[in-house]
Automatic annotation (TrEMBL), chains A, B:
Functional summary from the UniProt entry: Catalyzes the condensation of pantoate with beta-alanine in an ATP-dependent reaction via a pantoyl-adenylate intermediate.
Family matches, as NCBIfam families: cyt_tran_rel, panC
Species lineage: Bacteria, Bacillati, Bacillota, Bacilli, Bacillales
Superkingdom of origin: Bacteria
Subunit architecture: Homodimer.
Protein's UniProt name: Pantothenate synthetase
Family: Belongs to the pantothenate synthetase family.
Length: 278, 278
């Protein structure tokens, strides 16, 4: 497994790989890998000749009062895990390597970022668009892999690719969960033991909400009651929208999503389903 | 010469061309071709196996009170001219083909668009960035060709490519001029006979300004006097900036640029030069 830290090294590898007629899959991550990331690599392995995983805690997608500095990092462990699942290249650049200068030109997510996490984290998805665009261009990847746990991110990136004609295919990965249902997340390490036990109720609340919605009942109030009763976390939002349009207009799939702020970790989770098929 | 009108046709051609290991140069235009465009094709022919010219009057870069509807168009004549200089493919899509739906995601030029034409045409360069990004992705071109007459556009596109790591090389084409010095422009057809004679003084004013600047004298006031005396047009701006930074900080090259509004045509012109080499 190659570990590349500079744009020049990556471009050279991409050039050689393309020249050899091989396809490339990219799995963009912020590191501190868990099984969610690794399942994306496994999917990418099946569909591409070579798999690049980027590991970059992207400052552009953190707000001034968010957890950029204390976001968990462990590159040594990440390398071992990435190697074990057959990653061909890790691209782990420095911030200066990715952002050598300020850019006057901006990508903004617009109304797609006015709901769910975007409403609570102004500028977050603009930062995601920036880094993802750069990674797509640098790797010239045929396919890119994103988990459905970050459902709004996935929807926004799908829109980016469609609206700006990127020649990359976006592949969705299922959310990977702990045995008790908690969605895997790098931020789970910041839960206290008590909070960790409470956190299994996020998925349960979503299941309750889904069942109510399918019976044409309001899911939100009962979910608030349930979460308030079973966790000490503060509910950031509970929303039900069309997916991936992220609008109130529901055509096929819907997303039922929530965010709960615990003491040191803000957790998100969601269910995406087609009401007609349930 | 192929004439393609849909994104799907273009993508198929690009796929086949890339598979054959051939390089692609793109010359983005709004049609109504003149020798400036054709010189870009000739340059592109020298440096690439295949040359695509796009012909698309891009509504996204016209303001509500600008000349989108009456922008000159003549696809039949354009095809003849493009063929004569060896263009391999014309891509001439409809507006619906390029913009099948509204996009929530926007590219904005920022401070680079707060000077020169950008200050007078809000949103213009955002629209340029949008169409150029789409064309770069669709053609997967190795090189793209832009004329220095649209110097601010060129600087902004160079910044786009650098800051977002596009794998495309931007190539600058010299401004092509009429015998009397008037810069070739599709909009020149809208000049009256009197205005056409006056318009040669734009280049002369720039030369006067450059000479003064090199003598460390203010170029702007004398240029205003000269243009007021020799043309009936209204001066939109005269500016001197670093290039391609488009800031007041001059490091190497400078741009001396002007815009003059005639009755039915707004003309722009500029000189880019390195004061240390003059």
């Amino acid at each position: 497994m190659l570990i590349l830290q500079t744009v020049e090294e990556l471009k050279e590898w991409v050039h050689e790989t393309k020249k050899a007629g091989q396809t490339i899959g990219i799995v963009p991550t912020m590191g501190f890998l868990h099984e969610g990331h690794l399942s994306l690599v496994e999917k990418a392995k099946e569909e591409n000749d070579k798999v690049v995983m980027s590991i970059f805690v992207n400052p552009a997608q953190f707000g001034p009062n968010e957890d950029f500095d204390r976001y968990p990092r462990n590159l040594v462990r990440d390398q071992q895990l990435a190697k074990k699942v057959g990653t061909d290249v890790i691209f782990a650049p420095s911030v200066d390597e990715m952002y050598p200068r300020d850019s006057s030109i901006k990508l903004t997510a617009g109304t797609l970022a006015h709901v769910l996490c975007g409403a609570k984290r102004p500028g977050h998805f603009d930062g995601v668009l920036k880094v993802v665009t750069k990674l797509f261009h640098l790797t010239e990847a045929n396919r890119a892999y994103f988990g459905q746990k970050d459902a709004q991110q996935l929807a926004i990136i799908e829109s980016l690719v469609a609206d700006f004609n990127f020649s990359i295919s976006i592949r969705r990965g299922q959310t990977v969960r702990e045995q008790d249902g908690l969605a895997k997340s790098s931020r789970n390490v910041y839960l206290s033991d008590v909070e960790r036990n409470e956190a299994l109720h996020l998925k349960k609340a979503l299941e309750i909400g889904k069942t109510l919605f399918l019976k044409k009942q309001d899911p939100v109030e009962p979910m608030i009651s349930y979460l308030t009763e079973h966790t000490s976390g503060k509910i950031d939002y509970i929303e039900l929208l069309g997916y991936p349009s992220l609008t109130k207009t529901i055509q096929n799939d819907v997303i039922l999503a929530l965010a709960v702020q615990f003491e040191k970790a803000r957790l998100i989770d969601n269910l995406i389903f087609n009401p007609k098929e349930n």
